[in-house]
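User: Show me an example of a complex going from sequences to structure tokens.

Assistant: Sure. Here are the input components:
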Amino acid sequence: MASRGGNLSIVGLAVPLRVWVQRFAFLALVALAFALMLLSKAETAAVERARLAIVDDFVPVLYALSRPAQSAGEAIDAVENLFLTYADNARLRRENAELARWVDLALQLELENATLRAQLSHVPDNTPNMVSARVVADAGGAFFHSVLVNAGKRDFVRRGQAVVAQGGLVGRVVAVGERSARILLLTDINSRVPVIVLSTGDRAVLAGDNTRQPKLLYLTSTAPISPGDRIVTSGDGGLFPRGLVVGAVADVAEGRISVEPLVNFARLDEAMVLDYGLDGVLPPPERMPARDGPSPAPSK
Amino acid sequence: MNPGEIAAQFERLSRGIVPAASVLMLALLSVLPMPVAGLATVMPAFGLMAIYYWVVLRPDLLPRVVVFALGLVVDALSGLPFGVHALVYLLVHAAMLDQRRFIAGRPFWLFWSCFAMVAVAAQAGTWVIASLLRGAVLAPLATLATTCLTIAAFPLATFVLVRLQRALVGAGRR
């Protein structure tokens, strides 16, 4: 572009030229934006790579910035807990009495299970390898329910892997950069998770709809379902492993069964990416390195 | 090199960096995980506020290409199709470049109400594009709430940006 300090004749020429160039630049950028949208919609590899590269660059910054927000959250928790101590105590005593009964039952069943498995020479389920990652961005606002975590290819995170936190399913990995990954939450409108209703054994699909409570679709029978029934993944389709706790039925209204996820998405600081070595609809991933120590129970 | 010269150089440098950096920082603020239930879906669009602020008060410091690039960064982080925020930012920039002389130097309520219009248009635009590209009508109520919060939070962003501008950038031309 012509400099402002040129002599008169150049300025006389340069001003219309400048306006013209600027107008052209504007239209070119608008056209570029539309082109990028279409390329991105078609999941063009180059555009996806560029996106992941940008996310990779910003993950350290987001990590640093998310610390104060997390500390604030912990402070709020501390104050809240102080006020709730009395009520919590009473509730926990009640629950403890109830759970003591369940422990006895569980021990009995464990023994029975072990005996039966020994009789059947049962092949145990795959125990997952896992990587734990910090949630650094809660992105997309009202349009896209996803979070970014600070673990990527170099941590053996691969597309399609299931992500859990706080003992429940969070969603699955949809894009992986070198040191970052995007997780599609199970509340997003594009999320579909094959599940089982534990009380009836019915299979269904848990479909997100961009609200806080996803809904159950394609129930296999008309057996009655009531609020509080627990929902776990069924492992159908091979994308999610079987038996991860998803949540509980919140409300059964006409034609709509909504599910309250177990995970509190507002307090999602840490998430665990699980690798069961499932191929699903995606090419087989490279396995995460095996770890010593106790394997993470899908349901805590 | 005397202190005055160093100060002048520093000012030139900060003029070049501060507007774009402030847009980026505020945009990052919008995607940070917040420990309040439901806030993530209705987080105000802080990046938009900064774009509006700088294009009205110092358009010379925030070139169009930079606005476009900042939009792309927001798109990459938010996971929406590439170009959605880039386009919205670009249109806001162009519209305000045209209208800024009616706002710059006028009372704050005018500055604010004009931003309200920009925010409504920008959120509605983002909503339409995102809905078209994702093939579904996306949470209109949450979008409305986001818009209201964005308008309500504008004085907060202005408070920070005014101080940044006074300390590091200067008033510039009207």
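The lines above are the inputs; the final block is the predicted structure for all two components together. Chain B has one domain: 3-169.
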